[in-house]
Request: fold
Amino acid sequence: MGPKRPILSALESGNGDLTESPRIDSKRLAFAANPSECSVWRRACSGVDSVRATACYAHAMHRTQAKSTASSTAVQLCLRWSARFRRRLSSTSLAILGLCLFSCAACDAGAEAQAPTVNFNRERAWSDLERIVGMGPRPSGTPALDELRSFLSKQLTEAGLTPIIESFEENTPIGPLAFANLYADLTSQGTGTAKPPMVILATHMDTKRLGKDFVGANDGGSGTATLLELARILASESKPRPVTYRFLFLDGEESQREQWIDPDNRYGSRYHATALRARGQHRQVGALVLLDLVGDRNLRFFTESNSDRDLLNIFFEAARKNGLGAHVGGPRGEILDDHLSFMAVDIPCVDLIDFDYGPNNSYWHGEDVLEHCAPASLEITGKIVLFGLPELERWVLARR
Reply:
């Protein structure tokens, strides 16, 4: 047996669109397409003729296409039984349709209450980004990056976390450089005797060596500001999470030369991933979520082909279910980024990245300034992550 097609797609492509019926009542269809007229369409659909069945179908089609946060099960039932209704099945089928309509109406009434709520302080995140950009260019091994690490350490401490600096030195094409990652763990007690798995939320904080005017508002700044706010939010929750979270700010993502040529890149992520494997801790890490270039005013995350497909779907579906679908499902392509270092030690990864920054990506390593970023984009990114975490946690726990 082949995979099942979505109900809506099957109805429209396989059996013809119900709106082609000559018995359509346009007034009822108009009511059906407007969820605010719930009581009107419910009364219209309470009878047994095909006009009213079509109204039911139109309402369900509207709600499905709008990616409502209401229960999709009731809507799908409504679609299914509308299709059968048009085939004039028994009165028993019609009675089931009535029950489905009642369920859909209940979903309409309770959608607001049932929708998950997340709070992401976009003003504070944007203020952090302004401060970060105000530090100027922040390449690896510079005083400006040291200043940023000190700022992040202070903020994480104030959030109740314990920041750890992971220092190391490596030879680079421009000579030996001192690098230092920064991370803090939000430890879970788990639900049993086994040590709970870990989820790493990561970003890079360094900027490309492109002269005194390149401040990396988006590339290096936006992910850092967003991850800092996510750390504050998760650390402030009263209910413990079932997994441990590591907030990881990486140094040395950027190559020291103009071209990205291995191994002149991913210094910090390669060091951290190698250290995890050397200690046997990589087996504890259930997933890594990487944030990069998340501040673009016209935010839309790429469908990054190196990313684990399950993880990509978790966050893209979370976005769609919560009214943020316009910001996911961008062009498909391979991105060379810090997640590759963790994939090399068998950690499932997803890279949430918008690699279309400005006309023909001209702002990337170009005019990467605050004016080309937006507070809303930081908030959208934060919300997509927060909306996706419950499903991510279930996915990670199921694989233990």
